Amino acid sequence: MDQSTSLILFEHLRISLKALSKQQKNAFLSRLPSSYCSTRITPTCPQQIMVPMKPLPSATALRRYPISLSSLVARAGGTLLHKRAHHPGLTLSTHRSTASLSSSGSSTNTARISASSWEEQYHLGRSLSKSTVTAEQQKKWNQKVKKWKQEWDEVLPNQQEQVHYQGYEMDALEKIQKKSYEANLLLEIRDVRVPLSSHHPSFTRLARHRNHLICYTHADTIDAVTRDRVRLWTSKVWPDAKCLFIDTREMRKKEDVLPAFSFAYDRLLHNLDAAGGINAALTVGMPNVGKSSLLLNLLKHAKTQEAIPKSTKMRTSNKSKSLRNVKKPIGIQDVPGKTRDITEYLIRQKPRAYFLDVPGMSPPAFFLEENPQSWFALGACNLVLLSQELEEDIAVHTSFCDYVLYAMNRDRNFQYVNKLGLDGPTQDIQEALEKLCRKNQDKWSEERLQKGRCEMFLKFFNTGNFGPVILDDLNYGLNGRKL
Q1: 164-193: per-residue pLDDT in tens?
Q2: pTM over 0.90
Q3: Are 195 and 334 members of one domain?
Q4: What is the rounded distance in angstroms from the CA atom of residue 40 to the CA atom of residue 159?
Q5: Using an 8 Å Cβ cutoff, are 400 and 379 in contact?
Q6: Which residues constitute the domain of residue 63?
């Protein structure tokens, strides 16, 4: 073997380290996450280290550990892979469905990802790793949108009609404050597409005196790069919090659902044990953010691991003094606004651990008044309950689409151009909507056609067809503070 260092990825991660010294080898191996792999020296080739993935790179395994294989290698190698000056011949080649990255010792370094790459199939958003925009188009369109508006200036509707608040919410908020003293962990559920807007201001106070774990749902709509951006932003705005990302899609194979939640279950228990004291997690979030989907699957996973009895143990606030057995968690329903009582569920028998399921809390009026763009972002993600008048207003739904278009242009995400068949990026939402529902434009009325176009546009966004889109501006934190 020459002086170059080569990395070959296939069923096992084979790392050929002949060019490295013993100290460098130890430094490399010390950075390999033990939870992902184990190491052994092959007797026939002492200069090669075989790092078998366990389990093998399957869809189930990679949802449990949602990071790309190339990210794993980069993190494991640390500075050894980062400082190419010491290893000019570093290459990363592929076999079958793995990612393909290569760098030569020459001045021109290239990176390529094959059409059937491992990342394209298995990272958070399976179809999001391959951009439909060429480098030349990206550069050209970046120059075009520079002159467009950089701030959202749409006016909110009548303040009394922005959100249709449920009657139980104010009473539930008071109960949450009292119940918080029984919990040593705050499990906050947010939508990853609106990491700031889906945060209720009251939850900031709850996180001050207890461990804070943020769970971002809808992670299937983003890719690994976007996930890392959200993680970095979270560390700046909430430096004491930890975060994880979970795919809460409903339409998935049954055998893929529970393994996808096993990592979240382990992280939850780990943070509960680390906090000490009462092992109870207060679970909070906005309506329809995916809280019930997460909790239901955590309970199912706990049963499959025999951590709790098959009959779910629960206790509803002000209705029972002790845990009682029920066949299914009747207090949790995967329907927005159905959770109305604070209910305690057992998630581990020994040592005992609980989570407290609380009603979803809509954003307060003052928060939307100070952050008007959040209302449009939440509306696009279907996270705000509208009054009947606003629900029937076509202009409101058009404004939701307009905000999605604005956010994509702001972040220079132009995948919508090819998806809609446009000649280039646009800031005119009507121009974009006119590309949809063309078959029915002679059959439907103008109002029905506009509504159908808005529904299809938002469906494309909510299913990841426009690529990884974050509606909140990650250049800003709480109270509009520039990061």
Answers
A1: 666 667 777 777 887 788 888 899 999 999
A2: no
A3: yes
A4: 64
A5: yes
A6: 6-122
